[in-house]
Write a structure and sequence with these properties.
about 475 residues; alpha+beta; Arc Repressor Mutant, subunit A; 3 domains; nine-stranded mixed β-sheet; three-stranded antiparallel β-sheet; binds manganese (II) ion
Length: about 475
């Protein structure tokens, strides 16, 4: 099932490593007390530290350390009790310090693993490291025809850079990796995962090689991709560009490229710096971070159930199909909603209703599950009414429609509209007798061997009972009476 790109000279394999920058959920920045709220007036959340005024000193935000450790544990990664902040020196107008405080040789989190739920089965992707660093400010090029403005609100915001190993082999795997990582940090509460607001951004390192070659070839890095769809499209285009280059006798150069979503292409931004160009050195204003094992253990003990564990529990304990479990755990709100529905009714039926009926109306109106017009409690009651045979699945769809448009309690709706299923054998038998009496020709056809006519009888029965006769009982009793 491997993903290969066919070229003129044969098949090519794509090798991808992702660097994800995830904004740490914290009200204050990494080294200052300034606020981090999204969408504030430009330069309204900038302390003297963030503006790099002379003599200002950074002070570490302990919550950010806790969040980084929590994320590391969520990635099944090694937590380094000793880690060091270093200065990564470069000039950029939106970086007033002239360097970014980051971690280099000794990051807070080492190797870990993210498991992808691919259609062909689970795939383990290695995590190389997770380190903490400051975000830079933002240059605004579209506010004035002549000037560029600088907004330093993001300057100093705490980021986790999560670096994968070059284990990804297709755009689909890369997309799934970002989705899974986003789900994990959201379950953990360490990053809101909001890609539109820039809380989660992705750089993709892409190289290609002929199938069978084991050495890694030169990679290009595509910067700052801000949606899962764009990650996949950018990788696909970059891979095709590189293959074409090689096949025409060219070479790929190590460089940073930009993905243009409108033109759907990647363009060169600058030649890629090597680590030594940044003149990293330990920040003399900050002590190394030395954690106690007990600090880590305490965080470990407070970890919530993560998507993989929830997935396993839905399959093992609730009997859900694997694919249904994968979809339900993809985001925590959906998993929680489903659990509330399931606890009030029957899990498999609850999964069907959430995944099909509820998702259909949410998708139709572009709503998230948090804005569902039907509460989990109400849907749970509805599913319970189907499970205990009070109403049929068919009638339940009508009740659900009323719940969506007018709201209301499903039991009350069933009561008010007289929709209770007819499960009384005598009553159903009476209706069947009547029907056979009124349609002797069709009854004879059945006796003569045309069993298809049974379907016609079922239809007539449902019509006569306004859909309320229990379909299973109708089927069974019809066969008995006609045969
Ligand atoms: Mn970075």
């Amino acid at each position: 099932m491997s993903y290969l790109i066919e070229g003129e000279t044969g098949d090519w394999e794509v090798v991808i490593g992702l660097e994800v920058h995830a904004q740490i959920t914290s009200k204050a920045k990494l080294f200052s007390g300034a606020a981090t709220e999204f969408g504030a007036e430009p330069n309204s959340q900038v302390s003297l530290v963030d503006a790099a005024m002379p003599g200002m000193l950074p002070v570490i935000n302990e919550l950010c350390i806790e969040q980084a450790v929590r994320t590391g544990l969520g990635l099944n990664a090694k937590i380094n009790l000793h880690s060091v902040f270093e200065r990564k020196n470069y000039f950029y107008p939106d970086l007033p310090q002239g360097y970014q405080i980051s971690q280099f040789l000794e990051p807070i989190v080492g190797e870990g693993v993210v498991t992808l739920d691919m259609p062909e089965g689970p795939r383990d992707i290695g995590v190389e490291r997770l380190h903490m660093e400051q975000d830079a400010g933002k240059s605004l090029h579209d506010q004035d025809p002549k000037c560029t403005y600088i907004d330093l609100n993001r300057s100093g915001v705490a980021l986790m850079e999560i670096v994968s190993k070059p284990d990804l082999r297709s755009p689909a795997e890369a997309g799934e990796y970002v989705r899974k990582l986003r789900a994990i940090v959201r379950y953990l509460g360490t990053c809101d995962g909001n890609m539109e607001q820039g809380s989660l951004r992705c750089d993709a390192n892409v190289s290609v090689r002929p199938v069978g070659e084991t050495e890694l070839r030169t990679r290009a890095e595509i910067k700052n991709i801000n949606s899962v769809r764009f990650v996949m499209a950018a990788i696909e285009h970059e891979a095709e560009r590189q293959i074409e280059l090689y096949e025409n006798g060219g070479e790929v150069v190590q460089e940073t490229r930009l993905y243009d979503a409108i033109k759907n292409e990647t363009r060169s931004m600058r030649s890629k710096e090597e680590a030594h160009d940044y003149r990293y050195f330990p920040d003399p204003d900050l002590l190394p971070i030395d954690l106690e094992q007990s600090f880590v253990d305490k965080i470990k003990a407070s970890l919530p159930e993560l998507p993989d564990a929830t997935h396993q529990r839905f399959v093992d304990d609730l009997g859900l199909a694997n694919d249904d479990a994968v979809t339900l755990v993809a985001d925590k709100e959906t998993a929680d909603f489903f659990e509330a529905v399931a606890s009030a009714s029957e899990p498999k039926l609850a999964a069907n209703w959430v995944l099909h009926e509820l998702f259909a109306i949410l998708n139709k109106d572009g709503l998230s599950i948090a804005d569902s017009p039907v509460s989990s409690a109400a849907l749970g009651k509805l599913v319970a009414l189907i499970a205990d045979d009070t109403i049929s699945g068919r009638i339940a769809k009508d009740v659900f429609e009323v719940m969506v448009t007018d709201g209301g309690d499903p039991e009350q709706i069933v009561e008010d509209k007289g929709l209770k299923q007819i499960t009384d054998t005598g009553e159903i038998e009476g209706m069947i007798d009547q029907l056979i009496n009124d349609n002797p020709d069709q009854a004879q056809q059945y006796k003569d061997g045309n069993t298809k006519v049974a379907g016609w009888f079922v239809g007539q029965m449902m019509k006569a009972s306004q859909g309320k006769a229990n379909p299973q009982m109708v089927n069974d009793l019809l066969k008995k009476k006609l045969g």
